[in-house]
């Protein structure tokens, strides 16, 4: 039996890649897992970068939503969503269909390209 | 001068003036008053705190309600909330969803709205008295069989999907609020909580589990709980007092 989906994102949590990149959408016998969180605490919330292990490769990713309830008036998603990113912050996919929280707009400088490819906002 | 002198009886003599029958006024306000709705966050929790604290909080809640209309709604009704968001375009953000839970007492009262957008379930917990909320509309006012619809997370997504541009369902100001006796079908187990257990007392799920599992779940039933006198909290008198206070203050 498997453990239930983790609420916030830390090492070894399975995540769901939400953009339309080839790396995120091709099926593989192992789900993408987080191996490192770029944070003082090892717990990743919305807007944090993490290192993902997908299809035997290491890739950085941006957390866009998690199962853990955050501050009131912010959305809580039913799955831990993640967008694949390069080292310089450019997203790999070209479109993000799932809804993205408006909180990410606060750091418009770093995430401007990710926000540009997002379609829905919540 | 009066025209009554011209009226002639069948006898031929002038008839006495008969006033017209009085119109029957159906006072709709009185009918509405008989159905009272006191929002659950006004009722103070059981405890040993000074009632002065709850009185001051109620004054603040009434003050906010005078400025901003918080409509009557129950768990299971579909609401649309517009909030002020500095990071949204046009600074405001609209979210439509079904209310799955109402928690908190006093000014910190919250309600959680759930919707499924693009196959992704989203829940937002709003505070009723938060000044960032600009409007709350009730699109569909109805009750469900349970007080807490958290099981919708483990139900098939069709039961939590609501169109973002849904039109408000019109209903007459008649007495009863419709109770939706919908029995929801669930995704296969494992669920986030064991909803078949009697502790949750859920009536709104169509359990398709084998009889053996349902019987096993009854092992955790605590039939003595409903007779426990120390857990009783009779709110009828408190509600009457608070209802009088709140309705008088709001009518001023």
UniProtKB/TrEMBL annotation, chain A:
GO cellular component terms, A-Z: mitochondrial inner membrane; ribonucleoprotein complex; ribosome
Q: Which organism is it from?
A: Aptenodytes forsteri
| InterPro entries (UniProt xref) | Ribosomal_uL14, Ribosomal_uL14_sf
**Which keywords belong to this entry?**
Mitochondrion, Ribonucleoprotein, Ribosomal protein, Transit peptide
UniProt lists the family membership as follows: Belongs to the universal ribosomal protein uL14 family.
Q: What is its main location?
A: mitochondrion
Q: What is this protein called?
A: Large ribosomal subunit protein uL14m
Q: Where in the cell is it found?
A: Mitochondrion
One GO MF term: structural constituent of ribosome
Q: Does the keyword Transit peptide apply?
A: yes
Answer yes or no on keyword Transit peptide: yes
Which first-to-last residue range defines the signal peptide? none
Biological process (GO), any one = translation
Pfam families registered for this protein in UniProt: Ribosomal_L14
Automatic annotation (TrEMBL), chain B:
In terms of Gene3D superfamilies, this protein maps to: 2.30.30.790
Subcellular localization, per the record?
A: Mitochondrion
- Pfam families the UniProt entry points to: Ribosomal_L19
Region Disordered: what ranges? 1-32
Q: Which InterPro entries match?
A: Ribosomal_bL19 (IPR001857), Ribosomal_bL19_sf (IPR038657), Translation_prot_SH3-like_sf (IPR008991)
Q: Give yes or no: UniProt keyword Transit peptide.
A: yes
Family, per entry: Belongs to the bacterial ribosomal protein bL19 family.
Q: What is this protein called?
A: Large ribosomal subunit protein bL19m
